[in-house]
Amino acid sequence: MPKFVYDFTEGNKDLKDLLGGKGANLSEMTNLGLPVPPGFTITTEACRHYLAEGAVPAGLAEEITEHLTALEGTMGKKLGQADDPLLVSVRSGAKFSMPGMMDTVLNIGLNDESVLGLAAQSGNERFAWDSYRRLIQMFGKTVLGVDGELFEESLEELKHAKGTTDDLDLTAADFQKLVGTFKGIVRERTGREFPTEPREQMDLAVKAVFDSWNSDRAILYRRQERIPTDLGTAVNICSMVFGNLGMDSGTGVAFTRDPASGQQGVYGDYLQNAQGEDVVAGIRNTVPLADLGQINEPVYRQLLQIMETLENHYLDLCDIEFTVERGKLWMLQTRVGKRTAAAAFRIACQLADQGLIDLNEAIHRVNGDQLAQLMFPRFDAAAPKEQIAKGMNASPGAAVGKAVFSSEAAVEAAARGEKVILVRRETTPDDLTGMIAAQGILTSRGGKTSHAAVVARGMGKTCVCGAEDLDVDVKARRLKTGDVVVQEGDVLSIDGSTGAVYLGEVPVSASPVVRYFEGELAPADGDELVQSVHRLMVHADAAARLAVRANADTPEDSERARRFGATGIGLCRTEHMFLGERRQLVEDLILATSDAEREAALDALAPFQKEDFHGILKAMDGLPVTIRLIDPPLHEFLPDLTELSVKVALAGADASDKDRRLLEAVHRLHEQNPMLGLRGVRLGLVIPGLFAMQVRAIAEAAAQRLSEGGDPRPEIMIPLVGSIQELEHAREEAEQVLRSVGGEVKALIGTMIELPRAALTAGQIAEGAEFFSFGTNDLTQTTWGFSRDDVEASFFSRYLELGVFGVSPFETLDRDGVGRLVRIAVEEGRRTRPDLKLGVCGEHGGDPESVHFFHEVGLDYVSCSPFRVPVARLEAGRAAVETDGSDSR
Amino acid sequence: MPKFVYDFTEGNKDLKDLLGGKGANLSEMTNLGLPVPPGFTITTEACRHYLAEGAVPAGLAEEITEHLTALEGTMGKKLGQADDPLLVSVRSGAKFSMPGMMDTVLNIGLNDESVLGLAAQSGNERFAWDSYRRLIQMFGKTVLGVDGELFEESLEELKHAKGTTDDLDLTAADFQKLVGTFKGIVRERTGREFPTEPREQMDLAVKAVFDSWNSDRAILYRRQERIPTDLGTAVNICSMVFGNLGMDSGTGVAFTRDPASGQQGVYGDYLQNAQGEDVVAGIRNTVPLADLGQINEPVYRQLLQIMETLENHYLDLCDIEFTVERGKLWMLQTRVGKRTAAAAFRIACQLADQGLIDLNEAIHRVNGDQLAQLMFPRFDAAAPKEQIAKGMNASPGAAVGKAVFSSEAAVEAAARGEKVILVRRETTPDDLTGMIAAQGILTSRGGKTSHAAVVARGMGKTCVCGAEDLDVDVKARRLKTGDVVVQEGDVLSIDGSTGAVYLGEVPVSASPVVRYFEGELAPADGDELVQSVHRLMVHADAAARLAVRANADTPEDSERARRFGATGIGLCRTEHMFLGERRQLVEDLILATSDAEREAALDALAPFQKEDFHGILKAMDGLPVTIRLIDPPLHEFLPDLTELSVKVALAGADASDKDRRLLEAVHRLHEQNPMLGLRGVRLGLVIPGLFAMQVRAIAEAAAQRLSEGGDPRPEIMIPLVGSIQELEHAREEAEQVLRSVGGEVKALIGTMIELPRAALTAGQIAEGAEFFSFGTNDLTQTTWGFSRDDVEASFFSRYLELGVFGVSPFETLDRDGVGRLVRIAVEEGRRTRPDLKLGVCGEHGGDPESVHFFHEVGLDYVSCSPFRVPVARLEAGRAAVETDGSDSR
Q1: Phi and psi at residue B753, in whole multiples of 5°?
Q2: Helix (H) or strand (E) holding B547
Q3: pLDDT per residue as tens digits for the range A276-295
Q4: A802 with B729: Cβ contact below 8 A
Q5: Domains plus CATH for chain B?
Q6: pLDDT for B309-367, tens place per residue?
Q7: pTM of the predicted model as reported, rounded to 2 decimal places
Q8: Is A285 an interface residue toward B (CB < 8 Å)?
C-alpha cells in the first residue's frame, strides 16, 4: 500500500508531484530547520484515488490518525481538546499554483467547548469567538455547500443593528451571538447540525478540498492555464498559529529581492495584529517590511537570516508568507517568486555573477515572452502622466491616439491618417474593422479572454481591457471616470503592458533592448538590463541547436532580420511583389485570352521579380533565402466581387468596358472558399509559365549576384503541395528552367508542409523535396478546419472562456493535433531522406512554447518575423539547455 | 543468382508477378498441352534490375542464350538462319493489362539473307519482303526511336506512285524496294545502319520493351489506373507463326461465353490470310467464328475443345487469340475476359449452378460498379432510335432534353422548367452552371478525364464526351453530323452507359433491377438477370461484416432506404429541415437582437423539427437513426451578399427596411471561407439554445413514438468537433435536455470525425463519444485543403491528366492521406472505448473500393444515399469473403 501521508519532516521540495507545491516547500523549510508550524500533507495520490473511486483509499484514515497523534504529541495538546485545543488549518496545494481556485478551512477543532479553552488560553475571548464563527462560516460554505452570502448578510445585519460598519466594533458577545446565528443557517440549509466533533470536521474538510479540485472554476482555470486535469491536489494539515492575538502578533509577505528591479534587499509588507487574508484584502494599511526592525528587532533579524537561507537554498528570488504569534516567527509558505521581465534578466545575471547558478541555468530563468515585453515601445518613464484608470494588461505595447467610440469613427479617422484608440464597453465581431484601424483598444468590461483581448492579441495590437472605473457612453461618444470626461477626439495613451490608461499624449520611446538589437547601442553603453540581455543572448546562441531565420519579403526587412541575428530567410513571399504598380500586370495576366497575351504579361512581370530577388539575395549574401513561389488565388489581385458588382450595377449602361471585363473575370475566378481553392502549386500546374517565370527570375538574380562576386543561396519552395505527384511536376519544371539558365547557379528545391495530407504522406513527398518548411498557419487552419480570418473574431473568445483552448492555436502550436502531424512528417520525411532540411515558417516560429516543440521534434530552424528573431534565438538556446544541457543546479 | 528466364514449359498462371499476365498464361496453356508456339519469358525482376541500374543483370545474356539454343533445338532451325530462319516476336507483358501502352517487335531474325530463306521456305516472296519491311518499321520506331510517320509516309508515297490505296496491290518487288527506303530512313535519322545481326536485334528489342515501361503514356496510364509504378514488365520471346501465308491461314479472337449475355456458345471473329493486328484494325471484314467450321472443320473442333478446356481450367469466361498457319492451330494468348455488367451477374450464377465456383467466389466475380450500372434508368431497348453519333461513355445514365449550346441557354431553359442537354465542343469551368442546369452533357472532344467527364461524374450527371463525329458550332447554335443538323431546341437523347447519341426523344424506363430492389418485382417474376442479382445480394448480405445504412433526411427517403436494404439511417441532416417555409423562422433567429427574440424563434422552429424527427423515427422503427445537429453556417439561410448588395444599391433610398436589416446581417455573418467558419459544434456553443432545441425535438419525437408503441432508436451526432472539450460541452447540454424530457427516451451521443484534428485526437474524443461517424467528404476537403465546390471544376481534370490523382478523392477514398486518418481514429478511438460504434456517412460509403477499405479498417457500418445502398451491400459482402472468407477456388 502506498504511503498517503507525509509529515513535514518527511518531504522535500522535489516531491511537488506528490505533495503539491505548498506541501513540498513546507517540508523543505522544516528540513532546513526553519520555524514551520508542525503538520503533515496528504498526497495527491490519495486525492486521485478519492476522485476516481468516490471514496478515500483504505488505510488513509489510519495513516491520518497516526500523524495526527504524532502532531498532538509534538504540540502537547489534542485536536479540539476542551481546555487547550490544538487547532489546524486544512489547505489545498497542487503541483501548479492555482491561486484562489481551491478551498481552505481554518480553525478546525473549535466547538462549543474548545472555544472556551481557546479563550482561556489566549486570554482573548473576542478572538476565540471570532475564530469560531469564522470556522462555521468557512466550513459551512466550503464543506457543506451553504451559500456564503447568507453568512455575510447575517454579519452585515448585526453590524447594521449595532450601527457600525467595522468588524472591530464587534465584541466577544456579538461573535458568540453570530455563532448561534451561523449554526442556525447551517441547520436550516443542510438539515443537519454543524459538526462539532473535531476529527469529523477535519475529515470532512479533507474531502471538501479533494472535491474542490473539480469545482467549475478550478476546471476552467486549469483549462486556461493548460494544467493537466488528472493531477489532483494535496491537502496540508497544519497547526494554526495566529497573527491576530494582539500588537505583538502580525503577519506579512516578503521577497528576497525586488521583484521589479531584481536588487537584493528588504522588500515586503507587514501588518500588526492581523491574519494572512487581511494583508491581501487591504483592510488596513500595511507597513514596509523594514519597519518590523523597529517593532520587533530579533524577529526581524531572524527573518532576514531566513530569507538569505532560502535564497541560497532555492538559488532564486523567493517570496514568503510569515506570521508572528506573540513575538514568535512562523514561516507559512515560500516559493520561487514572480518578477517583472526586466528583473528576470537582471536577477539571472546577478545570480550567475554570484556564482550561484551557471549561464545555462540563467537562460532557463528568463523567457521569450519576457524578452518580447522588453522590446515593446514604452511610455517615457520620466514624462509627466495623468493616469485616469487601470485595466487589465491584455495585449502589450504603448498606444497613443484620439479616443473614438465606434468602429465607424475609427475607420473614418484612420482613413484621414489619424491615430485613434477605439474605446468600447466591450467589443463584438462587428468592431473588427475598427480594431484593425485603431492603434489600440480600450474596454471597460471583460477579462483577458474577452473578445477585445483575444482579438487584439491575435492582431498584435495594444489592448487594455476591463478598466472598470471607466463609464463608457457610446451613444454620447464620451467616457467618464471620477471628474474626468473624455470626449471623442480627446487624446488617450494606453499601456498594454501595465493596463494603465493616461489622459493626453504620453511620449513613446523605443526600448533600449531594441536599440541594442538594432546595433544602435553597444552592450557596454547600455544599462544593466541591456548588458544582461546581451550576456544571455550570447549564451543562448552558443547553446542553441535550432537556427533562427526570418520571414521577410524585401531587402529592407532582410537587413533588419540580419541585424536581429537571423541566419537566413525562411520565407520570402513572392506575391507581395505583385502589388502596387505591378497589380496592373497581374490583371493583364488574368485577363489574357490567348497564350501570347499570357506570355506577354509574364514577361512584363519577370524583370520586377528578378530585381526583388536580387535585392534580397544581396542583403542575405552567404545565407540561405527560401523563396516561396506564388501562393494566393489570383482573384486576390482583382477587385472585390460585391463592390465591383454594385459599381457596375449603379453605373448601368455607363459602366466602363474595363469594369465589365474585370467583373466577368472576378465572377469566373470567384471561389466560395478561396483558402481551399486554386492556389499554390495548383496555380503552378494549371497556368502555364507562371512558376517558370518566377524560377527564371530567381536563377537570373542569383547569376547576377555570382557575377558581382556574391554568394547567393536561393532555395525554391513550392507551396500547398498535398501529394508527391504535384511536387514532381513543379520540380521538373523548375529544374528545367535552372538548367536552361545554366552557369553556376544552384538552388535547393523543397516544399511547404501546410496541408494535413502533406504531413501524412511526407515519406513519399520527401522523395521529391530537399527541404520541408512547415507552414503552421495553414496547417493549423486545415487541421482544425477553421479559417483564421473568419473565426478568431466570431468564436475564439467564447472558446477561451469555455476552456476549449488554453491559448489560441494560432499563437502557440497545438501539440496534440497539428504537432502530431509535424512529428509524423519529420520522422517519415527523414526516414526517406536522412539529410532532409527541416524548418518552420508559420508565425509559431516566433512563439516561445512552440519553439521548444520544434526543438524537441528536431527541426533545423525556425523562421519568424524579424522582430521576433531575438525571442526565437533566446528560446532556441533555452530549449537546448533544457533538453540537452547538463544539469546545472 | 535469381532465375531471369522461364521457358513456357516452366511457368504457370500463378506467376503473374514474375512473368506478367501474358507470359503466365502462355505457360499455363503450354502445360495444359495446348498448341502454343514455343518460347520463353524474361522476368519482371530482370526488368526492374535494368530500370534501377540502367543495365541488364549479369548472367541474363547467358540465360537467354541457353533458352534460345533450346528453342532452336525444338524448332529445328536457328534464329535468322539464312536458308530457313527461326523468327521470333518480342512482346511486353506486365502483371496488369496495359493495352497498347508498351512495345512489341515482330519478325525478329530477318535480314538481307534470311529474308530470302523465308521466301524460299514459305514459297511466298511477297510475304517474306513484307515481313522484313514490317520488322524494320517496327524496330525503327520502337527500338531506335525513329518517328513512325516517316515510314508511313514512304509507304503512302509508294502506293500513290502505283496509283493504289490498298497494300494488297503491292508486290514483292515493291516491298523489297521499301526495305531499301526504310533502311535509308534509319540510317539518316539514327546515323547507324539497321542491325542485321539477329541476336543483336533481339537484345535491343528486349531492352526497348524494358524501357517502354517508363514511356510517358505508360506512366500516365498507370497513374490513372493506379497500377504500381515499380512492377516492371516481363518480355515474351515467342517463335513466330503466320496467319498470312494464304487462305489456309488466318487469325481470330474468341470468347468462351457471350460477354454481353453470359450464354455459353461460340462467340468470336475470324479473318483468313491475316495477322493479329488486322482483325483489330478492321481493315477487312471478319467472319463469325462459327464460319471457321466450314473453312477448316478439324481446326474448328480443336478450337472448341480448347475453349472448353480453358473455361473449365480458369473457371471463368476466357478470351482467346489464335492463329492458323497453313491449317495448324496455334494459341497466342488467353486471359479471363471482360464482360458487360449484366453478363457478369449472369455468368457468376451460371458458374455457381454448374458447380464450378461457390457463391463466395460468385460475389467476388461481380462488383458494385456493375450493379450501379444495372440500376441506371435505361433507354427502352425496343423503342425505335436514330443513333447519330457515338462518343465515350463518360458518366452513366440516360438523359433526354433539348439541345442547348451555351451555359446561359441551359440555365434559362432550366429556369423555364425545360429539360436540356448541354452540347459543347468541350467544357471549361465557365460551363459549370450550365452543367448543373442540364440533364446531361455532350461534348465532341476530350476523353474520360476531360473536364466534362470529370465534373459530370462528380455530379452524378449523365455525360457522353468525345463524340468526334459531331461538328459543334456554338456560335451558330447547332451541330452537324453527316446530313443531320441539330438546332438549339431540337431534342437529343444520350446514353452515358454506352456513349450513344440519339436524335429525338427515346423513352426511358426504370431498370428491372431497381424495380426488384423497390419490391415492385419479385425475384421469381424477374428475368435471369434479376434472379442472379437477387441470389448474389442474398449471399452478400449473409457474408457481410459491415452493416449498410442510408443518408436520408425525410420519411420518404427513409422508407426507400429501408426497401433498398438499409439497416438504419447513418446521416439525417437537420438543416434541410430549415428550408422552404421555415426559412423565415431561421431569418428571425438570425436577426434576433435579444434573448427573448432568439428564444421565440427557436420555439417556433421546435414543432417542425419534432414532426420531422417523428416521421423518420416512425419510418425506421426498430432501426438506429443518426441525427446530425445543425451543421452549416447560418448565413447560408440568408440571401447572397453580392445579389442583395446590388439590389439595395439599385433601390437606393427606396430599399426596404427588411432588405437593409438583412443586408446588415449578411455583412455581419459574411465569411471569407464559410466551410472553415462558424458552423457545426461552434454554432452550438456560440448560440444559446440552438442545439438544445434540436435535442429536445428529438427526445420529444422519440417519447411520442414510445407512447405509440414504437421502438425509436435516435442517435445524436455533434458535427465538426475538433477537440474533446467541444464535444464535452455539447454533450453536457444534450444530456441535460434528455434528462429533462425524462421517461424511457434513450439516445446515444456521438460525433462526426470530419476534421483532421478529430482523427488525430480520436483517443481523447472517444472519451466523450459513444459513436464516431466519419464525414469523409469534409475530411477529404480539409486533409487535402481543397473545397469540392471550388476545385473540381477548376483543376481536377488537369490533375487527372497529369496523373496527380488516378481518380477524384471525392469518388474513392484517398487511402494514403484521408485513409490514414481514418485508421488512426479507429485504432485510437477503440483503444479508449472498446465498444465505440464506428461508421462512415460521407459519399464514400457507397463507393465500392472505399467500402473495401472501410471493411478492412473494421468499421461497423457504412452509410450512403438510398440509391447506393444495394451497391454498398454487395461490396460489403465481397469485402468480407475476400478478406475473411475461406479460399473458395
Answers
A1: -110, 100
A2: strand B547-551
A3: 666 655 556 778 899 999 99
A4: yes
A5: 66-239 (1.20.80.30), 250-336 (3.30.470.20), 376-509 (3.50.30.10), 544-633+671-884 (3.20.20.60)
A6: 999 999 999 989 999 999 999 999 999 988 888 899 999 999 999 999 999 999 999 99
A7: 0.85
A8: no
